[in-house]
Structure formats: structure tokens, C-alpha cells
């Protein structure tokens, strides 16, 4: 029986690439979306045509009750043993001009969403004595970034939570790691960084691809990474 993998924010560039990679790795993938269910379903349809096991699911990760209900339905088909917490938003502003709503919404999706999705899945996962939790953070959560105090706080909090959860689950053969992308091509970065700026900022002198992030997730989800936990893997072309 295939292990099941849930990818939140699976309708976006990075989420879709992760879903495709994990499906190719042999997992039955559950592609989550909130407002972009049609995009998530398109990802699923593409995977189904390739002979992979995939399904789409819709819920708001910031709504604890709705998330719990959706997860309970999914768990009726068996435990979810790989969780990729990829859902996240950014709403940038310098802190002096940032509204409370901007602060709250970004924290809600990245950090509270991580708790709302992960916590209900932990006991079913621990009963299987195998699991992988991979949280998608950002270079902003490691280094900080102007205009992103909310986003950096959310992602740094995700890193701290991951390290603590890794200690709680290590004896159960469940690993918890973080992948922190740098500048990655896609909707979140287009029109933000010029090619010249990327060459100045990134030692590799290019943006990364969603597939390169997915490759890191693929490794961390595999049996090859069984002794790797509580780590932050930066996929950033050498930015430091």
C-alpha cells in the first residue's frame, strides 16, 4: 500500500512541483488548496493521467475547525505519513507602515496553519512508527528581509517549532525538517527581482526552480534521510 503525502498550498509553483515529485516517488499525494482548488485539481488531473495516485482537497488552514473536519475525512482512508507544510502568503510592508491585518494574516497561514494541519495528524502517524514532516520556510526566516518582518517572523517561528517537534518525535522514527528556499522562479518572485539583481544577490547567479526545492523535499521524505532530523536545508544558490 502506498504511503500518503499531504502537500498544503499544493496549487502554487513550489507546491505543485513537490506534489509531482512525491507522486513520482510512489506516494499517494493529497494536493491541498484554499482559494485555488481548480489549480490543485489541474495538478491532480495531470498526475492521474501519468498513472499516479492523487486527490485534491480544499480547506482554509487558518480555520482550525474546518481543517480538523477535512483531516478527519482524509484519515478515514488511513494515516498520512508525509506532511509538507507549504502553505504560506506574504503581504509586505516596512514595519512602521504595516497594519495589524498584514501581520496577523501572514502569521496565521504559515505558523498557525502549520499547527492546525500537523497536530491532528500526529497520533495516527506515530502509530505507524514512520513519518516525515517537512516544513517549507524561507531564507527570510533565517536571514531576515526588509519589508517582511511578518513573513520572516512566521518562517523563523516555523523553524523553531520544527526543531522542537523533531525532538518530540525522533524516538518514533518520525523526522521533522525544514526546507528554506531562496529566490525561486514563479508567481511569488516574478517582477520582484530583475536578472541583474539576482546575479548580485545569489552566488550561483540565477534563481532556483521549484523542482530543485522539490528534490530536497523528496530526499527528506525518503528512507535515505532516516537519520536526518531537526535540520534546516537551505536551497538558495549560496546566499548567506
Number of helices: 8
| Overall strand count | 7
Beta-strand fraction estimate? 15-25%
Question: What composes the largest sheet?
Answer: 7 strands, parallel
Distance between the termini: 42 Å
For the largest sheet, list the strands in their spatial order: 3-2-1-4-5-6-7
What series of H and E elements makes up the topology? EHEHEHEHEHHEHHE
CATH topology name, in short, is Rossmann fold
The backbone outline, from C-alpha atoms, is: globular
Residue-averaged pLDDT, rounded? 96
The helix/strand class is alpha/beta
> Helicity range of the residues?
40-55%
Return Rg in Å: 17 Å
Number of domains: 1
Kindly report the name of the CATH homologous superfamily: NAD(P)-binding Rossmann-like Domain
- CATH level 1 class label: Alpha Beta
- Under the CATH scheme, the architecture is 3-Layer(aba) Sandwich
